[in-house]
Amino acid sequence: MSVRSLCLAILSFGDATGYEIRKQSTEGRFSYFEDASFGSIYPALARLESEGLVTVREEPQPGKPARKVYSITEPGRAEFIASLCEPQAPDTFKSPFLLIALNAALLPPEVIRRAVERRKAQVREELKLLTDTEEDKQCQHPGSKWTRDYGIACMNSTLAYLEEHGEALIKIAEDAAQAIPAAAE
C-alpha cells in the first residue's frame, strides 16, 4: 500500500484535514498499514487533488487560518478499490527488539532482561490501545472490527511468546557471559 492509497483509505471513511490524516496514519487506526511521514502526506494529497481523486474545501476558523478539508471523489474511490484488488505486497515487520535478541550472546544478561521487559511493556501498551479505545469498541464497521481483533490476536500471541520464552533468551546471554571467563583462562 502506498501513502496515496492510505490517504484514500482514510478519506473513504469520511472527510478529513491533512492534520487528521497524518494523525490517523501515524497514531490512529490506520497506523498499522503503511509508514506515512508528515512530509509524504501533503504531497500525496496535492497529487490526488490535481488528478481529481480528492477535492479540498476551505473551512474558516475564528482567529485562525482556514483549514483544508479533503473529500474522496467517486474516481478516487474507484482507484482506491482498484489498488486493493492488486496483488498485495508481503507484510513487513521490523523490530529493533529482534536485533537485540539476535545478538543476545554478545550482550550482558541485564541488557537482555531489560529488552524483554521493555518489549512486553510495549506490547501491553499496544494491546491497551487496541482494547481500550471507545471509538473502536463502538465501531460497527465489520472490516474494522475484524482488523482490530486480528491485531489483538497478534499482540496476545507476541506477549504469550515473550512470557513463555523470554527467560530462554536471557539464558543465552547468561551462558555466553559465563563462557567468556572460561575462554580467557
Structure description:
Helix 1 crosses helix 4 and helix 6 (109-132) runs antiparallel to helix 8 (142-184). This protein folds into 2 domains: 3-85, Orthogonal Bundle (Arc Repressor Mutant, subunit A); 96-184. It has 185 residues and is mostly helical. Strand 2 and strand 3 form a beta hairpin. It is elongated and about 70 Å long. It contains 8 helices and 3 strands, in the order αβααββααααα. The protein starts with a helix and ends with a helix. It has a 3-stranded antiparallel beta sheet with strand order 1-3-2.
Helix content: 55-70%
Q: What structural class do the secondary elements suggest?
A: mainly alpha
How large a portion of the residues is in β-strands, by DSSP E?
Answer: 5-15%
Structurally, the number of domains stands at 2
Major sheet characteristics: 3 strands, antiparallel
In N-to-C order, the SSE pattern is HEHHEEHHHHH
Q: What strand order characterises the main sheet?
A: 1-3-2
Number of beta-strand segments = 3
**Unreliable stretches, pLDDT < 50, 5 or more residues?**
none
In round numbers, the mean pLDDT is 89
SS summary, helix count? 8
